[in-house]
Amino acid sequence: MRLNRLTKLAAACAAAALALGACTADEGDAEELPGALPTPGGEISVAEAGVVDSFNPQSAAGNTDINRKLAYATHSGFNYVDNNLEIIPLEQFGTYEQVSEDPLTVKYTVNEGVAWSDGAPVGADDLMLAWAAASGWFDDELLSADGTPLSGTRYFDYAGSTQALALTGLPEIGDDNRSITLTYSRPYADWETAFGSLSDSSGISVPAHIVAQGAGLADEKALTELIRDTPGGDPLNPAPVNPELRAVAEYWNTAFDARTLPEDPALYLSNGPFIVSDINPGVSLTLVRNEDYAWGTGPDLDEITIRFLPDPAAQTAALKDGTVDIVSPQPDGSTLPDLEELEALGNVHLHRGNQLAYDHLDLTFDGVFASAGVREAFLKTVPRQAIVDATVQGLQPGEEPLDSQVFLIDQAGYGESAAGNGSSEFAEVDVAGARELLDGETPVIRVLYDRDNAYRAEAFRLIRESAAEAGFDVVDGGLPAGEWAAGLGSGSYDAAIFGWTASGVGVAGVPQIFATGAASNYNGFSSPEADELMARLVVETDTGRREELSAEIDRLIWEANYGLPLYQLPGLHASADTLEGVEYMPNSTGLWWNAWEWKILR
What single-letter DSSP state applies at residue 508? Predict the structure, then answer.
């Protein structure tokens, strides 16, 4: 493990200050002082609060920030989003072009030579599998008005919204099996990130030849043939379950577990700058340079170890003693002063700003909360301002609760939507109003949250205390950092406290979370009116009209007593002064957005 030399030097200086009155670096230290040139190679360690548990972040079970960061470092795609929230094509990987506006037709071509780390080429078979998973093409599941499955089958548990690619027909394959062409039935404004993007859940997450093998098919050609020969699903006329397709989807959904390093390297293949080399369960994961990667900017670093440290104080201490080089702790009033002290010593660089992320309380729409009155009563007890004061207020003085389910505070449209969506009904705690709605009932509410996350643990404590005054019996359903996400949508809780992070481009995240039956709609919210508005939203090209539609959707979500947004999350990261190229990014990719540019100063 490479230690932070300036941290040790500063500590030695402090210890000797009384006796010597000063501290200077010797010539051996001088070559590593700020201003030194970056040198290729080397090893660093990065602290992250989450625990990696899946190599497939496109699946509903694997859709967490840390899993997406790992996929970002180990995969390639047709484009990515930079820290100015601009879409950057990756032309060394392949090309994508709009070949027609009417109908909207987009062609994706992988360059020759792009390969998985086992040597298998990346091509149309991989693109076809990614399209099949992200389009919902084969699903014929029929849902009731409240989102309950009535008949039919859902195959791939895709975490993102399928609304974009559901507008496309069966892709055409060309260019010696290196390209597919998608034709949309309607215009789609966010077509650039609808498919094949590295920065969200629409990329190529798993190799087709491995999925085919795992599902019992002959090879990836047989998988593509299965996709092309199987009719699209029709919920009004559901077909019997296709056993071959079911096996493919189940393998895609469940096979890529990352809690331990799989014995079969096929389950963690890379087609990006880094590749996984080791996992210490619950403790760390190690990435090494993918020596075969030649279709993008190759990384300078030889090795990155991700240490799973949910405790912000532990992250800061590790940065201070040099056992990690980059930290992304949950920012709070105690963490910031410690990092600012290190920055003042010249030991670290701070990276700060608002995140495109927010924490929220969601209520399920079944069980005890099947009653809109009970949902409303519970929400009336939530002390949102007290939660803000106890969490993010220390970093952002004057911060107020977030008053929108679809806009963040610093986004255009937030103010107007918040003023008219009904959020004012929950601006203050109303225990008397909650008691009146309960009329003597004492509902038991089990709340799921990440108990290793200090903000969410504090939010749970404050909610439990306030809700008890109205007669609710709130049960602690908190789970450790590596376990809570698997509980989402499991039916084991009544309410959940967690967070959403946006990519910063497009509106696909709205139906991903709120559309009836969507894989990331964990609480069963369903509104035909909102569904119709979301269907219009994803094809609307006018920015002003998009804001209007989003505001209408926002109002419907609040009227349903869906839950409560709590606060927009501030971003706080720090990197050792011995690193170059580390830059702030507000979306879920975080500092990893340009990991291939990280360098060690010697």
Answer: T
